[in-house]
Write a structure and sequence with these properties.
By secondary structure, the protein is mostly beta strands. Helices cover about 5% and strands about 45% of the residues. A hairpin with a 6-residue loop joins strand 5 and strand 6. It is globular and about 35 Å long.
């Protein structure tokens, strides 16, 4: 699932120290995998920027929900500091696992 994935290398990654990892994000309630996400920098996962969501690539709508159990995981907003669209995740709504890339 995580083979041949190219990390985005842009000003946002450089601003966070150039450190990135690939996360498998899943629903806390049912365990369904909801996204693959490029996390830049250290710290917890509080928001998911739309341009860093690798799969599914067709994320649209005002809310981020689990496709299996329909649990609401986050809501869409504009992160004011960087003027970037993102999903603000609810605390404890998702589980994350670092995925090794080839």
């Amino acid at each position: 699932m995580a083979t041949n994935i190219k990390f985005k290398k842009d000003k946002y990654r450089r601003a966070r120290g150039g450190y990135s990892r690939l996360l498998q994000v899943s629903c806390e309630r049912c365990g369904n995998i909801v996204a693959l996400y490029q996390k830049d920098g250290q710290g917890s996962l509080k928001r998911m920027y739309l341009d860093r969501i690798i799969e599914p690539s067709n994320v649209v709508g005002k809310s981020f929900t689990c496709g299996k159990c329909k649990q609401l995981l986050g809501v869409r907003y504009i992160y004011e500091k960087e003027k970037r669209p993102a999903f603000r995740l609810f605390e404890g709504a998702v589980l994350k696992k670092i995925v090794k890339t080839a």
